[in-house]
Design a protein that fits this description.
By secondary structure, the protein is of the alpha+beta class. It contains twelve helices and seven strands. It has a five-stranded mixed sheet. A two-stranded antiparallel sheet has the order 6-7. The longest helix has 23 residues.
Length: about 280
């Protein structure tokens, strides 16, 4: 399925390249987010992406760079986009749906900025430590949101998301796994398969089993939160903050240099990809 994921990302990236050209901006990178990154995607799972836009010289000099939105494709897939600064703020807030894009193997990057993207990805684990207390609170809130979705709509997807977030917090905060490992259920294939079965309503034979599991999960989450909260204190990791500031400045300086030297944005000149896909 990985080829299908990449094909989907490339389709989104091509659309965002055209969008950037129209807005006279620079496409930085389009990355996959969602169940494919956790190993729990099914045959009907959508391809959803986040794209980072780089501002042009005028926007940088005028400090007018904010630009966020969402494109919905004909097949209902979502292609969201954010300007560089707004995306970095999502990283700082430990928004799991954005942070995971630093770890996904499925992305399409503008080759003019590929070295910068590799540098940013190399610092992914550092970025994840920006505010661990804030991350804990964010994940806890997102967990309760998913549980509420399950209760209100009897959505197995909500229950499966809640379970996934529990294991993410368990492996990252309790077991001390890397963030990348925690995203993948501690690289536990049995847990991945079990979560996928839960997502598609294949885990319970009776409503009593389902209710019992929900109670057990909520009790486990409460104990985890009580334990973890005692080990964390508010505050940011200055090293992670400095790294993000450095990368933002580095990318803006590169854009300024390109425009001053009249370099053409790479999206104006596509090449034929050996996979038969029109891309950069």
């Amino acid at each position: 399925m990985s080829d299908a994921y990449m094909q989907g990302v490339l389709t989104h990236a091509q659309m965002m390249q055209k969008f950037c050209k129209e807005k006279v901006k620079y496409h930085f990178v389009t990355s996959l987010y969602g169940s494919q990154n956790y190993g729990t995607a099914g045959p009907t799972s959508d391809i959803d992406t986040h794209t980072i836009l780089l501002p042009n010289m005028a926007e940088i000099l005028l400090e007018h760079t904010k630009d966020t939105g969402t494109h919905t494709l004909p097949n209902n897939e979502k292609a969201t986009y954010k300007d560089l600064h707004s995306m970095f703020e999502m990283y700082r807030k430990s928004n799991v749906n954005f942070l995971e894009t630093l770890f996904t193997p499925w992305y399409e990057c503008n080759p003019q900025f590929l070295d910068d993207w590799k540098q940013l990805r190399a610092g992914a684990e550092l970025i994840a430590t920006y505010n661990k207390f804030g991350m804990f609170r964010t994940l806890k809130g997102y967990y309760h949101e998913q549980i509420n979705n399950y209760v209100k709509e009897h959505s197995y997807k909500g229950l499966a998301n809640a379970e996934r977030l529990f294991y993410l917090m368990f492996y990252y905060f309790v077991e001390g796994s890397s963030y990348e490992e925690a995203l993948h259920f501690g690289n536990n294939k049995t847990l991945q398969d079990s979560n996928m079965a839960l997502k598609y309503g294949q885990s319970f034979s009776t409503s009593k089993e389902e209710t019992t599991y929900q109670i057990e999960l909520e009790n486990s989450m409460e104990k985890l939160c009580d334990k973890v909260e005692k080990t964390l204190s508010p505050g940011i990791n200055n090293t992670a903050n400095d790294f993000l500031n450095k990368m933002e400045a580095q990318l803006k300086l590169k854009v300024l240099s390109m425009e001053l030297n009249k370099s053409k944005p790479q999206f104006e000149s596509y090449r034929n990809d050996p996979r038969g896909i029109k891309t950069y």
